[in-house]
Design a protein that fits this description.
heterodimer, A: mainly alpha, B: mainly alpha, Four Helix Bundle (Hemerythrin (Met), subunit A), 69% helix, extended
């Protein structure tokens, strides 16, 4: 007999059972099996993406409203699983030298993906917390993956200590919400908030929970860990951190704000607006003096989360839809940019991270420079490229809800942020050539860079129709 | 009657080892006394019908926390003589803390019947033992969270191995199959040395 929750939870089942089998395979084959395990993990993640079709996208609440199998969750998973697969492919040729546990990397990413998948479909505080911790715990280990490298170990420790603090804050908020509402489900909490002016305890719970989630999404003022961890972690791991878990955290915050805290919109909106503007401006201004490309992209990710939160602050189905649209395009741009960073290697094949080393890349490696420039222009939101459109969608949603000043401030932030993206383009195209990079022989990664570059090029505008209607439908499933 | 005797037995055996924890000169003995105190506290929990908490005490406190303490105490080279040296200097402060704790205990004990607590009422008899009730909830409504928590522990295990395990060249791990395949003929040689000759190897 097959239990009735099997069909709606198929992607999670595929990931957790498949991940366990891969773990055994990794344990018994050791370093020899690293390539096999990593490709199987990619297949598993793609299989889980295919498994989203059908009941996992519209079955509704499962386990008495513990999780919900709806289109909103499926949309998030359809972005996150392939992004996690790209992070596995990004590690090819990275961990083989000098790392003993090369194959466990893929296993940890698969489990992290399972955690993210629980996060985006969570409709109860219990599921929210276990999903978040499953993802974070795998993240702590991944950040410290190169344990012989001091920076990686430091990144792992920093991430772990601050992450534990954030979990504590989140749990405190959860216990307050539970204590003052008597329920763990989002719908129950919404009903409690709808009963009149929320009590002080409820408000405290709301603030603490949002603070914990802001840490996971690295929104200001809980962003301090981001540059250090992104810089110290191995680049494939940073690729992962900047893409999928960020989507999971933003989507989780969106669902919680809309489904669980909907009647308290006035209470959380000011927090979200503050976090959004602070993230945009801090991300844009603090990136100025950076000389390390990974640190720079870390600030870029803080900046981008701010824009997504403008959509959340706008509220309503349109705001939620703009968040989904923004995160989908953001993931493609960020993955592309980080895949380019992965290819920055010196003559002996060691990774290089300084921005100066990009000087004159257009003369030594014109196609590589062109791809990198496309991602930078797109992240800056310069019109002919696709990165412009999600920003427009987000600002439109804010204006439609009457937050014109917020949209104007956001546009101002875009202009300030454009400086450092354009600075990289300037370094690549106008400076004297530095020592050329070694050629990386990874055809699959090259193909992924090409696909990402085409998606964010003006050709991406062809996607506006289908992607827009999909995000509208997905956001509609929340209301 | 028997319950009262059991209560006083467990209570005495909780408090006496607790005192011994403080007064033992050897920290390893302290930890062992602590384990005894935990066991008897678990017995007290059983008497009030909280068998789940009793099991948690044994499994979590005795099984994990106390054993961890024991490891720490035995592994770390702490000079307890130097720790004790500041005893008289810190005595006034220690006495103040002890008095505060004593005051709290007195307040707690005297407030024990003030509010609408359970003390005036008999605890309603549960329809089923609380372990059964917890188990039924855990494997039905909270099955999902329970399983994800299991995955969480699995990830913690993988993480610990990935971050700390390394194959070292200087380890001599036993080769089990080779050991099993060994026959008596290869391992034993029968000798019959003459008197006063000893044997040659």
């Amino acid at each position: 007999m097959i239990p009735r929750f099997t069909a709606p939870l198929l992607p999670e089942l595929v990931l957790s059972i498949g991940g366990t089998i891969l773990m055994l395979l990794a344990a018994f084959t050791g370093r020899r099996g690293a390539t096999l395990v990593s490709w199987l993990a990619v297949l598993l993640l793609l299989g889980a993406t295919v498994a989203l079709i059908g009941p996992p996208s519209h079955a509704g609440p499962v386990f008495d409203g513990m999780v919900s199998a709806d289109l909103f969750a499926s949309f998030g998973k359809a972005i996150m699983f392939p992004a996690a697969a790209v992070a596995i492919i990004a590690a090819h040729g990275w961990f083989e030298r000098g790392t003993e546990h090369a194959s466990e990397y893929s296993v940890l990413i698969v489990f992290a993906a399972a955690g993210m998948s629980v996060m985006v479909s969570a409709t109860s505080l219990v599921a929210l917390y276990v999903g978040l911790e499953l993802n974070s715990l795998a993240g702590y280990v991944l950040a410290a993956y190169r344990r012989s490298d001091e920076r990686s170990a430091e990144a792992g420790l920093k991430y772990f200590v601050l992450g534990a603090l954030a979990s504590g804050i989140l749990l405190y908020g959860i216990s307050l919400l539970y204590g003052f509402t008597g329920t763990m489900t989002f719908t129950g909490i919404a009903a409690a908030f709808a009963r009149g002016t929320p009590s002080l305890g409820l408000l405290f719970g709301l603030v603490f929970v949002l603070a914990g989630l802001a840490f996971k999404a690295s929104a200001v003022p809980f962003h301090m860990w981001t540059p250090d961890v992104y810089e110290g972690a191995p680049t494939p791991v940073t690729t992962f951190f900047a893409s999928a878990p960020k989507v999971a955290a933003v989507l989780l915050a969106t669902r919680l704000c809309v489904e669980g805290l909907g009647p308290a919109t006035d209470a959380w909106r000011q927090i979200v607006i503050f976090a959004a503007l602070a993230s945009i401006f801090l991300g844009a201004i603090a990136a100025y003096g950076q000389t390390n490309i990974k640190r720079l992209l870390a600030y870029s990710s803080i900046n981008n989360v701010g824009f997504a939160m403008i959509g959340l602050a706008a509220g309503g189905a349109r705001g939620a839809s703009s968040v989904l649209f923004y995160m989908a395009v953001y993931v493609v741009m960020t993955l592309g940019a980080f895949l380019c960073v992965l290819w920055m290697r010196d003559e002996e094949g060691r990774p290089v991270e300084s921005i100066v080393s990009l000087s004159g890349l257009a003369q030594t490696r014109p196609r590589f420079a062109a791809a990198f420039a496309i991602f930078m222009f797109s992240l800056a939101g310069i019109p002919p490229l696709f990165g412009f459109w999600p920003k427009l969608v987000v600002f439109n949603a804010a204006v439609a809800s009457g937050y014109v000043a917020l949209a104007v401030a956001g546009i101002l932030g875009t202009v300030i942020g454009a400086y450092y993206y354009l600075k990289i383009v300037k370094v690549m195209y106008m400076d004297e050539p530095a020592a050329p990079y070694a050629r990386v022989r990874e055809p699959v990664q090259g193909l992924l860079i090409l696909v990402a570059a085409i998606l964010v090029s003006p050709l991406g505008y062809l996607l506006i129709g289908p992607l827009g209607s999909l995000t509208d439908k997905a956001a509609g499933s929340l209301f | 009657m028997i319950a009262t005797i059991a209560f006083y037995l467990f209570a005495t055996l909780t408090i006496a080892p607790a005192l011994a924890v403080v007064f033992a000169r050897n920290p390893v003995h302290s930890v062992l006394w602590l384990i005894l105190a935990f066991f008897n506290a678990a017995g007290l929990m059983l008497l009030v019908g909280a068998e789940f908490i009793a099991m948690l005490l044994v499994i979590v406190y005795v099984g994990a926390v106390a054993v961890l303490f024991l490891f720490v105490v035995m592994m770390l080279d702490i000079d307890f003589a130097s720790l004790r040296r500041g005893f008289s200097a810190n005595l006034p402060f220690g006495i103040i803390i002890a008095l505060v704790l004593l005051g709290e205990i007195i307040v707690a004990v005297s407030a024990w019947k003030v509010g609408p607590t359970l003390s005036n009422h008999a605890i309603p008899a549960a329809a089923q033992p609380n372990i059964v009730a917890l188990g039924q909830l855990l494997y039905s409504r909270y099955l999902f969270a329970f399983e994800i928590a299991g995955l969480l522990l699995l990830v913690a295990m993988i993480g610990a191995i990935v971050l700390t395990h390394r194959s070292r060249g200087d380890l001599r791990t036993p080769k089990v199959s080779k050991q099993i395949r060994r026959r008596p003929g290869e391992a034993i040689r029968m000798l019959d040395p003459g008197v006063g000759e000893g044997m040659k190897l």
